[in-house]
């Protein structure tokens, strides 16, 4: 503050500087708090599978030799918890890389072609019926990131519905939209505005079994924003969910 010469500044200006400074500190504190919360959530999520792995390993050590039936059960539990831990660490890594605003590779892209590609890959892995409709939609974006986004949204649609999933491309003069629509369990209205928060899950019991950590949509939001696009979610509890990726159309 030494460099601010009070004589050349009016009281108002100094007050304003003070306010700006306070706002900056508040924002820093908020970010710091979020970061702390994130680390604490991540550690908590990693602790659960670790505890299971530890106790089955010690059970194996103590009883494995004398009771062979324990071996199969323990190895299975250790394996499935290890898989969960790998999934979580992968998602955490993706989040960390995303916040570094890793180099994007922007080019002129046809969203319909990118979606067709992603849908075909996804169908191959999960054998789910996915219907793609729409016309070519040219925007400036990173096609790999768009695919990554679609995998996140298709994964959710697959986990929380059992019917056909629709992927629709729509274009207006100013925007191109990819919508991923399912007819699944939907999201209660009170939870809807929080689903983009890190580690937010609508219902622990329904997601614990399907393996979600509440990170998918928050990652999707980060990626969409990095691309200069928007993401919206609409849902009716018990009927289904529509998530839209909205890309601005830049006219030459
Ligand atoms: P997760 O990895 O747990 O699915 P997300 O961040 O992708 O985490 O989603 C947050 C929560 O929102 C999920 O736990 C789930 O309860 C809910 N959710 C997301 N997508 C859908 C969907 N298509 N249908 C119903 N619920 C959904």
From TrEMBL:
UniProt-recorded Gene Ontology molecular function terms: ATP binding; phosphorelay sensor kinase activity
Main location: membrane
Domain Histidine kinase: 41-251
Keyword Nucleotidyltransferase: no
Catalysed transformations (reactions): ATP + protein L-histidine = ADP + protein N-phospho-L-histidine
EC number: 2.7.13.3
Keyword Translocase: no
Coiled coil segments of this chain: 11-45
Keyword list, A-Z: ATP-binding, Cell membrane, Coiled coil, Kinase, Membrane, Nucleotide-binding, Phosphoprotein, Transferase, Transmembrane, Transmembrane helix, Two-component regulatory system
Mode of membrane association: Multi-pass membrane protein
Gene Ontology cellular-component annotations: plasma membrane
Domain HAMP: from-to ranges: 1-33
Highest taxon above the source species: Bacteria
Annotated compartments: Cell membrane
Protein name, UniProt field: histidine kinase
Organismal lineage: Bacteria, Bacillati, Bacillota, Bacilli, Bacillales
Range of the intact protein held here: 199 to 450 of 450
């Amino acid at each position: 503050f030494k460099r601010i010469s009070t004589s050349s500044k009016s009281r108002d200006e100094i007050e304003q500087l003070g306010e700006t400074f306070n706002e900056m500190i508040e924002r820093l504190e908020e970010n710091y708090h979020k970061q702390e919360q994130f680390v604490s959530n991540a550690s908590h999520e990693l602790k659960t599978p670790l505890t299971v792995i530890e106790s089955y390993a010690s059970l194996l050590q103590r009883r494995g030799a004398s009771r062979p039936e324990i071996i199969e059960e323990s190895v299975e539990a250790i394996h499935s918890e290890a898989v969960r831990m790998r999934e979580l660490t992968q998602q955490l890594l993706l989040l960390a890389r995303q916040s570094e605003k890793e180099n994007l590779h922007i080019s002129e892209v046809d969203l319909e072609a990118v979606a067709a590609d992603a849908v075909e890959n996804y169908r191959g892995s999960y054998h789910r019926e996915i219907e793609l409709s729409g016309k070519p939609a040219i925007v400036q974006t990173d096609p790999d990131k768009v695919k990554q986004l679609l995998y996140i949204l298709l994964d959710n649609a697959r986990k929380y519905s059992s019917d056909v999933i629709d992927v629709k491309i729509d274009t207006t003069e100013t925007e191109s939209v990819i919508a991923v629509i399912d007819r699944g369990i939907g999201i209660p209205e009170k939870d809807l505005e929080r689903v983009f928060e890190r580690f937010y899950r609508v219902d622990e019991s329904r997601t614990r079994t399907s393996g979600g950590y509440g990170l998918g949509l928050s990652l999707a939001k980060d990626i969409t924003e990095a691309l200069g696009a928007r993401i919206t979610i609409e849902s009716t509890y018990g009927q289904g969910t529509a998530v839209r990726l909205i890309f601005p159309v830049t006219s030459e």
